[in-house]
Amino acid sequence: MNATPKTLDPTATYVHLPDGGAALPVPVTETFWSELASGARDYPGRLMTAYDVAADMAHWEVHPDGDEVLVLLSGAVDLVFDGADAVALEAGSVCVVPAGMWHRFLVRQPGRMVAVTAGEGTRHRPL
Predict the structure, then answer these.
(1) Are 110 and 63 in contact, with CB atoms under 8 Å apart?
(2) pTM strictly above 0.85
(3) Which phi and psi angles does 117 have, rounded to 5°?
(4) What is the pLDDT, as a whole number, of residue 123?
(5) How many CB atoms lie within 10 A of CB 59?
(6) DSSP string across 73-111
(7) In this structure, are residues 89 and 72 in contact, taking their beta carbons and an 8 Å threshold?
(8) For the segment 52-88, what is each residue's pLDDT rounded down to a tens digit?
(9) Whole-angstrom Cα distance, residue 110 to residue 52?
(10) For residue 45, which phi and psi values (nearest 5 degrees)?
(11) Which domains, and CATH codes, for the chain?
(12) 113 with 94: CB under 8 angstroms?
């Protein structure tokens, strides 16, 4: 293999983790999530994303095609679920959100989160 290791800004470049073991950089655009939700983008497998959590999530979301792993690197949030008890996340903690469960987060202390998501089929709904 002749690949060269490289660093990425995880908030500007996500990583597609298709079945088979590859890790493929994906530049983030303003229309990334709407294109994914509409089917215009296709990333079978998992998508690793990172983002700053500075404000409460302004909508609900669901990932019907697989569980989502959320890793809170810094800060503190409450994960709120439709039909289940909320879960408090502190810096360094992990939560597995089951496939098909509507969820959102409420920020108690701003920070950064990493998500590993089965992104295909992701949907959003208003509060």
Answers:
(1) no
(2) yes
(3) -130, 140
(4) 87
(5) 11
(6) EEEEEEEEETTEEEEEEETT-EEEEPTT--EEEEEEEEE
(7) yes
(8) 999 999 999 999 999 999 999 999 999 999 999 999 9
(9) 7
(10) 105, -135
(11) 13-126 (2.60.120.10)
(12) no
Residue type, 12: A
The residue count of the chain comes to 127
Q: In the chain, how many H helices and how many E strands?
A: 1, 9
Q: Which amino acid is at 2?
A: N
Alpha-carbon dihedral angle through residues 10, 14, 15, 17, given to the nearest 10 degrees: 130
Give me 30's structure tokens: 């303003």
- Which residue(s) pair with 117 in the sheet? 47, 68
Written as six digits, the tokens of 96 are 């597995």
* Contact indicator for 100, 64 with CB cutoff of 8 Å: yes
Question: Six-digit token pair at 71?
Answer: 């890793």
User: Residue 68's closest CA among 121, 111, 6?
Assistant: 121
Instruction: Map residue 37 onto helix, strand or coil.
Output: helix
Q: At which residue do the structure tokens 């800004």 appear?
A: 9
